[in-house]
Write a structure and sequence with these properties.
Helices cover 27% and strands 34% of the residues. It has helices at residues 14-22, 35-43, 63-70, 106-110, 113-116, 129-139, 150-155, 204-214, 249-258; strands at 4-8, 28-32, 49-56, 60-61, 75-84, 87-90, 101-104, 122-125, 144-148, 159-162, 171-179, 190-197, 219-226, 234-241, 262-270. Strands 1, 2, 3, 4, 5 and 11 form a six-stranded mixed sheet that branches. A five-stranded mixed sheet has the order 8-7-9-6-10. Strands 13-14-12-15 form a four-stranded antiparallel sheet, with helices on both faces. The chain is globular and about 65 Å long. It starts with a strand and ends in a 5-residue tail after the last strand.
Length: 275
């Protein structure tokens, strides 16, 4: 069966590199206009798998991915972590001193806070870092640059003006592959992603986490996100060690369901091995 993979951005995006790492044997990888376009293509089975960034070692969860997954009929099926090296790239002849506008994805700006602490330029958001690099290449304006990868610079005929400008110690991003199905088979070293909503009462979150502790389930990540159309109400996105059918995970989730207003599984998948 041939596998097609969709990722956000034109060639040269970090998600494109992640798509290659996650599905090295893909028959075809397809750059899509946005995170939303990846979700829509995967939901409609226009691609076999979609690839999105979900967590940064510097800025934490990627909110857009979390929120899109919450409303999509998709599950996480794979994960991979890639080092992210940001560079200031521009047209040949551009210099930092003459820059007036910098284009990039908002997450990239967050990962380069030290750079912008005393560099007073206009920051312009783009759909992806590769979109930003392509835009700069098309402007012909030496005062416009992008925060992007060196691969994007090569792809769009740009030069690296300043390399490795991300905050220290370096940035890593965890990417996930998403699909319109849930993996049933499991094994050692798996993880399960889910989301739940509690009552708005004192101790509700504490009680909801109790089943995990009582069953010896390790909590890997806990993220709070606003509920759509419910101001000041929140859901909790969770990643835990183990497969949904493991002997300790299954009873924990059964009890968790009785303590929450809503519980939704985002799938079980093999945890990435240490590289």
């Amino acid at each position: 069966m041939s596998v097609t993979v969709g990722y956000p951005g034109p060639p040269g995006s970090h998600s494109g590199a992640a798509a290659t790492a996650l599905v090295p044997d893909a028959a075809r990888t397809i750059g899509l206009p946005s995170f939303t376009a990846v979700i829509e293509a995967a939901s409609a089975a226009e691609v076999s798998l979609g690839v999105l960034p979900i967590e940064s070692s510097l800025i934490g969860p990627i909110a857009e991915t979390h929120d899109l997954l919450y409303t999509a009929p998709l599950s996480i099926v794979r994960e991979a972590t890639l080092p992210i090296r940001h560079s200031v790239v521009g047209l040949p002849g551009a210099t930092l001193e003459k820059v007036t506008s910098v284009w990039s994805h908002p997450a990239a700006f967050d990962q380069c806070r030290q750079l912008f602490s005393d560099w007073h330029v206009k920051c312009v958001p783009a759909a992806t870092t590769a979109h930003a690099a392509r835009h700069v290449s098309e402007t012909g304006d030496l005062t416009h640059v992008a925060i992007a990868s060196t691969e994007a610079a090569d792809e769009y005929g740009l030069t690296v003006i300043a390399d490795d400008v991300g905050d220290k110690p370096g940035a890593f991003t965890r990417f996930v592959a998403i699909a319109p199905y849930t993996q049933i088979s499991g094994g050692e070293g798996w993880r399960t992603a889910l989301s739940f909503v509690t009552d708005h009462q004192p101790g509700a979150l504490y009680r909801a986490l109790g089943p995990l502790s009582r069953n010896g389930v390790n909590l890997v990540q806990l993220v709070s996100r606003p509920l759509p159309n419910s101001p000041w109400r929140y859901r909790f996105d969770v990643v835990l060690d183990g497969h949904v059918f493991d002997q300790n995970v299954r009873p924990a989730l059964i009890e968790l369901r009785t303590l929450t207003r809503e519980l939704r599984l985002f799938g079980s998948y093999a945890a990435e091995r240490t590289r």
